[in-house]
Design a protein that fits this description.
The protein is mostly helical and 68 residues long. 65% of the residues lie in helices and 0% in strands.
Length: 68
């Protein structure tokens, strides 16, 4: 499917197609494995939460810290 074909679809058709595409990821058992470092990051964050050393930011605080 190319962009020109997609552009001819109605908004409803595009939303339904997008939903079907996302849903297909849930049923695809191939290549769904996250890299091992994802687990390491999650474990590290969980440990910080357990030890009360985690720092939480509101979205606005995060944005102000990371503005360019």
């Amino acid at each position: 499917m190319i962009i020109a074909e997609i552009s001819k679809m109605s908004v409803l058709e595009r939303l339904q197609t997008m939903e079907a595409l996302w849903d297909s990821f849930n049923h695809d058992t191939h290549e769904n494995n996250a890299p091992s470092w994802h687990g390491e990051v999650l474990a590290s964050r969980s440990e910080k939460i357990k030890n009360n050393t985690a720092q939480f930011l509101s979205l606005s605080e995060f944005k102000s810290k990371h503005e360019k």
